[in-house]
Design a protein that fits this description.
Aconitase, domain 3; 3 domains; five-stranded parallel β-sheet; single chain
Length: 516
């Protein structure tokens, strides 16, 4: 069996499972975040359900760690009250991103299972564990039963041939993988990564890559645990680790070998995480802001790297640099090492530990027309604000903030770019990425809406600014409210209407509201 098959079989109490088989598996770690937590509580209370095991059940408040939004504050307090009454631990707004805490606090171990209302719960693949984002109803069921059903995915083996080039980061690796596989070539697959370049990756690097499995449409990207990972998890958990590895004679659904020595510094163009180009194609593009953080690039290794770049330098005039560590532990370590002083002297804005710009309500959002270079995992329209977001590595984001335009650490100019005269529009720069016409003739009878677009994400179906809504009757009015050209869909739609969309509809998230 493959890694994921062994994990699922073990937690289903079976000797063997096969792709396509539906199994009921025990969940070792059961999380709910601040925006989804209130809905989980509502589902539990509406159905008079009890918690199966409070010791395995947790709230993590990472979307709005400032409590700056009244709806978030209300939902957080609702979860706190429920937690007090049911002996559930809360990782409150001062602790950081839930999936990172699960690893760092020793809640999840290699070979374990975890579910969360976080669509990037598959970050757990970084330690060889199975993590999955789910809708709030499924999470409520998992909290009440202690188990939940899954369909065993097919497994794909990807081997990176050669040694990683010195200045190619983990973010560059995953962006190059996104460029190769796109948003749906690996749809519904569990990917195992192998090769010399993989063996040497740190935990931070593995988290960066694992966190973007969602953007590829994959169930998870799983790393066979290294000795370093095993030692870290043993130290953090105080438990003996029994890692799971694939059988040598396992036959994968697909296998790929890619030469990592050919990987380039890369950037994802606005609107499409898989719209990846060589950084040289956009180098010199003026930026308004830079963001460094998120569950993809907020670890202490990331903070140390950008501190080394920013030390003794200043953010370009008119550019705003926003930095958000992933956890309070990282924040405190930055304080001890003098990294925060470097950030502030460079002119950066530092935020509370958490998800930051990926979730409305915390720093990292941008405004209409604003050009941002970001280390996040998503740049769908409206996800990180109303501006245009380019995805890149922390080093590129820091270098670009100093330069005032997109660049690498090797090409930071003595004098930064300034805002003067006409600025190149985003529409002009988008010409870099060609969009071939792949539409096909279709004949349909009846009242049907044709939304012929691939990879429509649940952020487009239901914007994250409405996540605090818990009543089904209030959700429908926001359908497609963040899908460009379809913002007025809910005003025109009638009961029983049909939507026909492109490939991978509803991609990239565990957002229950989109389903509802």
């Amino acid at each position: 069996m493959t890694i994921i098959e062994k994990i699922l079989a073990k937690h289903a109490g079976k000797e063997k499972v096969t792709p396509g088989e539906i199994v009921d598996i025990e969940i070792d770690v059961r999380l709910a975040r601040d925006f989804g937590g209130a809905n989980v509580v509502k589902n539990l209370e509406d159905n008079a359900l009890k918690i199966a095991d409070p010791q395995k059940t947790f709230f993590t408040f990472d979307c709005n760690p400032t409590g700056s939004d009244q709806k978030y504050a209300a939902n957080q307090q609702k979860c706190r009250l429920y937690a007090r009454n049911n002996n559930i631990q809360v990782y409150d707004i001062n602790t950081g991103i839930g999936t990172h805490l699960a690893i760092d606090q020793g809640l999840a171990l290699p070979g374990s299972t975890l579910v969360s209302t976080d669509s990037h719960a598959n970050i757990l693949g970084a330690i060889g564990a199975f993590g999955q984002g789910m809708g709030d109803r499924d999470i409520a069921a998992a909290w009440a039963r202690g188990s939940v059903w899954f369909k065993v995915p097919k497994s794909v083996k990807v081997t990176l041939k050669g040694a990683k080039p010195t200045k190619i980061s983990a973010k560059d690796i995953v962006l190059n993988l996104l460029k190769y596989f796109g948003a749906n070539s690996l749809l519904g697959s569990a990917v195992e990564l192998y090769g010399i370049a993989i063996n040497s990756l740190s935990l931070s690097d593995r988290i960066t890559i694992a966190s973007m499995a969602t953007e590829m449409g994959a169930i998870a990207i799983l790393f066979p645990p290294s000795e370093e990972i095993i030692e870290y998890c043993a130290l953090r958990s105080g438990r003996k680790i029994e890692p799971i590895y694939a059988d040598e004679d396992e036959v994968y659904a697909d296998t790929y070998t890619l030469d990592v020595t050919h990987f380039k510094h890369s950037v994802a163009l606005p609107g499409t995480p898989h719209g990846v180009v060589d950084l040289k194609e956009v180098e010199g593009l003026k930026i308004d802001s830079a963001f460094i953080g998120s569950c993809t690039n907020g670890r202490i290794d990331d903070m140390r790297e950008i501190a080394g770049i920013l030390k003794g330098k200043k953010v370009a005039p008119g550019v705003v640099l926003k930095i958000v560590p992933s956890t309070d532990e990282v924040w405190q370590q930055c304080l001890k090492e003098g990294i925060i002083e470097i950030f502030k002297e460079a002119g950066a804005l530092l935020g509370n530990a958490g998800c930051a710009g990926c979730a409305s309500g915390q720093i990292g959002q941008n405004g209409p027309g604003e050009v941002t270079i970001s280390t996040g995992n998503r740049n769908f329209t409206g996800k990180q604000g109303k501006g245009e977001v380019y995805l890149a590595s922390p080093a590129v984001a820091a270098a670009s903030a100093i330069a005032g335009h997109i660049t690498t650490t090797d090409n930071i100019p003595e004098k930064p770019s300034l805002f003067e005269g006409h600025q190149t529009s985003i529409q002009e720069t988008k010409k870099i990425l060609a969009h071939p016409d792949e539409s096909k003739p279709t004949v349909i009878e009846g009242r049907v809406w044709l939304v012929i677009q691939d990879d429509i994400d649940t952020d487009m179906i239901f914007h994250n600014q409405h996540l605090a809504i818990t009543e089904l009757s209030e959700m429908g009015q926001f359908t497609f409210g963040n899908l460009r050209g379809w913002e007025d869909f809910s005003k025109k739609a009638r009961d029983g209407d049909i939507v026909i969309a492109g490939k991978n509809f509803g991609a990239g998230s565990s957002r229950q509201q989109a389903v509802d």
